[in-house]
Every structure is written in C-alpha cells, then in structure tokens.
Amino acid sequence: MENTFDLIVIGAGPAGLTAAKCAAEAGLSVALLERKDTPQDILRMCGMMLVTLTGRYMGERTVYNEQARKLMFPHNGFSLNYDGPTKDFYSWHIYSPHEETVVFGDYGVNSAKGKEGRASAVYSKGHFLSGLLDECRRLGVKIFTGENVLSARKIGDTVEILTAGGKKFKGVFAIAADGRQSRVARSMGMNKGRGFYCTITSVGYEMTNLNLPQPYALHQPLVKSGNPPMMGFVVPRAWNHEGEDVWLVMISNVDMNADHEAIFDDFTMKSRFAPWFKGGRKVRRCGCTGNMYAPLVNPFKDNVLFAGDAGWCQEAEMTGAVMSGWKAGTSVVYAMMEKNHTQQGVQDYLDWWKTNHIEKLDYQVFLRNLYMPILCNDAEIDYLFNTIKETLPTVLDPYEVPENLGRALAKILPQVQQERPDLIAKITGFAKLPPEEVLRKTIRGGFNCSFTI
Prior knowledge:
- By secondary structure, the protein is of the alpha+beta class.
- The protein has a domain at 4-83 and 124-194 and 294-359: 3-Layer(bba) Sandwich (FAD/NAD(P)-binding domain), CATH 3.50.50.60.
- Helices cover 31% and strands 28% of the residues.
- A hairpin with a 2-residue loop joins strand 16 and strand 17 (244-253).
C-alpha cells in the first residue's frame, strides 16, 4: 500500500537520520519525514560541539578518527561517517558578571599538547547531516521533505502519521525524533505530568575578527545575575569565512519578552567583554527558543518511540542524539525480525534509555547551571569565583561541569564560612533546593506546551 512502511521516522536531525540509516541497513522499509525543505540547512542556533572527545557521556567514550573520517562509539558498537571540517578547542571559561573567572582546563598547557590536550572539537552539523542523508538515500529510505507532522496515533496494528498537508503515512512502528518542541510528544499527551522548568531564548550572530583572550576555547560570561539570569556564549566554528576564523556569539536567557537584540548589543558593545568584539564583523544572525522539560521516563507509546531531544531534558547533544537514534532504530529492527510489534519488542531500547539517560544523567544537575545567577547577586558571584583559585578538570560534558563546580565550592566552604557566612545558605541551596522552588519564576514565565493538540 502507498505510504505504508515498516518504520516511519519523524525528523531528519542526528537522531532521526541515524535511526533511519540503521533500520534501512537491516532491510526495513523506512520513510523519513522532515519539516524543512532542505534538512541539512541549519536554521536554528547550534553550538556544534562534539560532546565529548575527552570524557564519558552517557557511558560512552566518543572517538573521532580524522584519518578514517569516522565518528566512533566503541562502547555502543557503531560508527558514523564524517568527512567535514573540525576545529579543536582547549578549555571552558565561565566569567562572573564583573572581573572573575572559573576555568575548566589550562588553555596554555592544553593547546601546547595539540589533540592530546583538547577539551573537544567543533564540527559542521550541516555537513554531518548531508552525509547521513546521502547514506539514507543509497539505502532506499524514502525521504519526504516539507512535511510538517501534526500527530501520530495507533489505529489497529499500525501507527498513522498525519501531516499539515493532509498526507497520511502508516507504519508498524514510528520513531519521533522531532526535537525539543516535539509536536508528536504534544499530540500524544506525552508532556502531561512532565516537569516543566523554563523557556530558553537565544539570539546571536556568527562573527569574524574577534579579539578573544583564548581564541580556541568555549567562553561563557554571566552577563547579569538575577531572575531571570542572562548568559553569553562564544564558541569557535569549525569553518572559516573568507579566510577568517568564525565564532558563534550569543546571549541566552529565560525571558521570552526581552529585547534580545538590545541585550546582544549591550554585551558586545558596552559590557566589560566589549573589547573582544571591537572590529568584529557579523556574518549571519541566528537564534532559537526551546522549552526545558524533565526527560520522558518511558519514551514509548502506541508503537511510537521517542528519540533524542524529543524525550530529553534541554538537549541530548549530537552524540547523545545519534546514540539514541541508533538504539531506537536497531531495536525496531529486532522487533520486526521477531514479529513482536509491541512495547516488549522494543524493550531493549527502553532499557538502554533508562540506564544510559535516566540513571546516568541527572537532569536536575543540568538545571543547576541556572541556580547560581538566580540565587546570588553579581557581587556574590564575583566573590565565589575569586575564591576558587584552582584550574578545574578539562571537561565539556554539561552534566560534569556543575558537578565539578560543586566540588570546587565545597573545598572553599571553610573560607566562605569565615569571610562571608551569609553565603553559606545560598551555596547549600545549589545542591539541596529543588528546581521547582529555585525556578518558580521561570516556570511561570515560560511557554508550557504540555497540553494535547
């Protein structure tokens, strides 16, 4: 029957393309539905960092083999082709609102070591997706672009997918990999009862000719504390523009109604970081808005599996997304071979999700990235950053960074108790206060899409 497949994959990002590729390699008939006309065009803001090449993420030690042009996942047992540009970077610098810095990795020492000292690398997401698309086409995946999926529902023994253009696609299984704002999750009621914490808005530009103190590092200035806080990010790009290095410069906050362009101008032209951008040239404007939910504990309903950001808290990162897509796709293959078209048939994926995401990654640790600029004022953050004298471990994992910062804060507690006893309760709050309490204003101010459409 026309538009009937073994598997329908919704979303042509890293998770969806990896799932489609794996299923098609095993001989399944696969349809891939993508909202954009050109899936490899990166329209929303993305840091494009490989998380991570220097540590464990979800129990995996990702490897990029430049000679073979392979991104490898040895623990999970698969690899993906990538022959695009990369650029190494060597440390992560977090700046207090005024004069102080906490550093993850010694930039001078690490950069002198070359690849042995890198924190990780940036890549080209568009190039990566383009390569996966070509592989999917060669494997016989039917790719339907410009198809905005509205809903998914199970009718009898099949999953029916309805698009905004009125098209219907049917499959034995479906994998929803349609991102943080997953419309499939909303249509199926998956967000009901799921913790909602804030809506994060980011606006920025790709820029050249910057004057950074460490050009090949991740810089994260805390532009303003309070509720809501505002954070800046400066990330190297993997490519050059007209022979010049390129960086993504952006501002993120949790106030959707803020004048983000004015905030960006203030950050780059008036703040203490303005010298970094004097003479800088804007190449391309970009931005994104996304909700932060608790992860789905059980990413399955009515023969639809949720993969990547569709079931994650904040972002799975590219590496987490492809691991999720790979496991979801191969689990569907197994279920089809066993002719077990039920949740039990894909239980391998649900067990993997529980072990490697729910149990290994405490999403509340990730949420604590917002705690300090909400609980402390600018002067208090300056003091704490000044008191942390050590260079912290070279890490990129967004879950490891708050854990390492927490350990550093624990070491300085005796000094803080003596000099600033008023801060002890706030520092204790970083670890003990629930997100529902700390983030109550951002929860109320966000755009909660938990209802069914």
